[in-house]
Design brief:
4 strands; globular; 4-stranded antiparallel sheet; about 35% helix; PTS_IIB_1; transport
């Protein structure tokens, strides 16, 4: 199992890098990202990660379903964007 920071770094790389993320939020199970360019995310690589249950786009957000890790990973993503 990767730690939250490593998972955040991996997710960021697979959605087009930090420069492609304009907003980050989370609910209890989903990491929610607003992407500048919605064509850059690599869905097969994301869903191949053991920690990722699925990915989807909904309500203008790219969502990565992580279960209970969504909130801790979102905090790490925010830290990496600053």
């Amino acid at each position: 199992m990767t730690d939250d920071r490593q998972l955040a770094e991996t997710v960021l790389a697979l959605v087009g890098g930090p420069e492609n993320v304009s907003d980050v939020t989370a609910c209890w199970s989903r990491l929610r990202l607003v992407l500048r360019d919605d064509t850059l995310h690599d869905d097969p690589a994301l869903t191949a990660l053991d920690e990722v249950a699925m990915v989807l786009t909904q309500g203008g957000q790219f969502q990565v379903v992580l279960g209970a890790r969504a909130i801790p990973v979102s905090k790490q993503v925010r830290a990496l964007l600053t």
